[in-house]
Amino acid sequence: MKLDTKQHNLSLPQLLDTVAREHPSATAVFFKGKVTDYDTLSRQSGRTAAALCDRGIRPGDRVALYCVNSDIFVIAYFAILKAGATVVTVNLLLNPKEIAYMINDSGAKAVIYSDVLKDKVSAFRETCPDLKFLVSIGEEKSHSSDLNFSDLLQLDAPVPAIACDTHEDVAVIIYTSGTTGQSKGAMLTHYNLTSNVQSVSTAIKTEPGKDIFLVVLPMFHSFAGTVGMLTPLLSGCAIVPLGRFDPKEVADTIESANATVFLGVPSMYNALLKLPDDYAHKLASLRYGLSGGAAMPQEVMKRFEERFGKVIYEGDGPTECSPVTCLNPIDGKRKPASVGLPIPGVEMNIMDEQGAEMPHNQIGEICVRGPNIMKGYWNKPEETKASMFGQWFRTGDLGTEDDEGYFYIVDRKKDMVIVNGMNVYPRMVEEVLYQFEPIYEAAVVGEPHESHGEIPVAYIAFKEGKSATPKEIRAFCQASLGQFQIPKKFIAMKELPKNASGKILKRELRKQGELERGVDSR
Which domain holds residue 147? Predict the structure, then answer.
């Protein structure tokens, strides 16, 4: 049931159908007590594809998928691909104006949406003139003219036989968060994704027919889309989608589903540490946890592993790389604070501003080369060109490579704070703050300063019932940080702002700082 490396010329739906033919009755998706086996997933996605074609979707068209984690998300995703179209995944936390931008920019002809999102759909639909139709998953509709997804499933028509150039045809467009200007749509071909699935499946040592992936990270995101959905389903494993992150519900579901793999971002592992003692045993079936999307504070990793006895393997990779580039080897040597070794088929390098390779243990930009690198940004040739050093994709991460080939992310280039001409890497400061017992979570950003250029500012949230004064935190930092690295301000919040994947949003913290200083950030 593992993918054959020779199968990269097959499209994503062809690979799914291959697994379905070989193991038709194996569980593919378990959602809210409902089991969907591989044969059913293959047939229902085929029927839905036929219905989409019947309503005018043609090869190369884009169809937006605005859907919560569920069995229907998976069916709709593969149906769009079987129709020869491109999936445009939509972030559930975006406002209607941002969604409209993505739909209009991609030229999507249709939207398939969860009915719980109908109010947002009502708010953006009139500003998207090129939409031909919308499909509601559920009984509630944004408009009476919308179709029901259940109706698409009823069409008994042959699955369209559509040729696919796996190297050129774009399977998915995923818009990267617009930290500067408008978000950009990363175009991932079938070949990009199938190669990354093969590499990930090998790296995480999937056990077909045995592994059950709990997927609470949003599947519209590249991490969950590839590692949580495509990799298990194209490897003959099962997935258990959850629509929202609640620590107790996650623990209950791990226990009831006998889940073996959990995907999370650091804030999720931190939140699971709040579980009552009588919940700890519910994680017993897990083989391991995978962490990505943001730097894992070593103190959080240590406390989690000590309490639950489950190892967390940290890895990394941006959306543009399909997305996984590296991982600490499963059952192999892990290194604290490292994102591990390049996964099979992927090359990584540390480069300077001119694209020259840098010596080991020196800080530069992490660059990646391999079949997983995106085709480019949708309708943005200049931005695509600027993101590359020849065949190497520039991740925007500053990092180092040690003498054993392990990579370390120091920080995002844009997050680095320059104090009196000296580089301050927020991640280094955050690691120290997490070691201070009263602090639950922390994020450090730069703030413009007339005399010093910039100063580091720490936003923190305390554990329940805990607190500390700035003087006490500063005194703790002095044992591990230089004077210029110690935050000049400590701003306490009940909770730090996060995106749909649970990643702390530093841009929101910067905006808050600008508002407090009376800066017009428009």
Answer: 8-14+35-188
The pLDDT tens digits for 32-80 are: 999 999 999 999 999 999 999 999 999 999 999 999 999 999 999 999 9
Asked whether residue 25 is assigned to any structural domain, the reply reads no
Write out pLDDT tens, residues 332-364.
999 989 999 999 999 999 999 999 999 999 999
Calpha distance 222→204 (Å, rounded): 17
Is 348 domain-assigned? no
In a domain, 368, yes or no: no
User: Could you give the count of Cα atoms lying within 13 Å of 60 in the half-sphere of its Cβ?
Assistant: 2
Alpha carbons 4 and 82: distance in angstroms, whole number: 21
Given 188, 208, 225, which residue is the final one in a domain?
188
Element (H, E) at 513: helix 506-517
Q: What is the three-class DSSP state of 224? A: helix
Interatomic CA distance for residues 75 and 80, integer angstroms: 9
- The two tokens of residue 159 are 């699955």
Compute the distance between CA of residue 173 and CA of residue 356 in angstroms, rounded to an integer: 30
Residue 235, in any domain of the structure: no
Question: How far are the Cα atoms of 53, 74, 188, 222, 430 from residue 107, in angstroms, in the given order?
Answer: 17, 22, 16, 21, 41
The DSSP string of 268-324 is HHHHHTTS-GGGGGGGTT-SEEEE-SS---HHHHHHHHHHH---EEEEE--GGGSS-
Task: Report phi then psi at 175, rounded to 5.
Answer: -80, 125
Closest CA relative to residue 229, chosen from 366, 355, 75, 399:
75
Domain final residue pick, 129, 159, 188:
188
CA gap 45, 75 in Å, rounded: 5
CA distance 148 to 13: 23
**Which CATH number fits the domain that encloses residue 475?**
3.30.300.30
Among 405, 387, 385, which Cα is nearest to 396's? 387
Tokens of 481: 């940080």
Predicted structure pTM score: 0.89
Q: Please list the residues that pair with 453 across neighbouring strands.
A: 449
CATH assignment at residue 135:
3.40.50.980
> Between the CA of residue 476 and those of 213, 425, 434, 484, what are the distances in Å?
40, 18, 11, 15
How many domains, the chain? 2
Q: What is the dihedral of CA 373, 378, 384, 388, to 10 degrees?
A: 0
Distance CA 173, CA 379 (A): 11
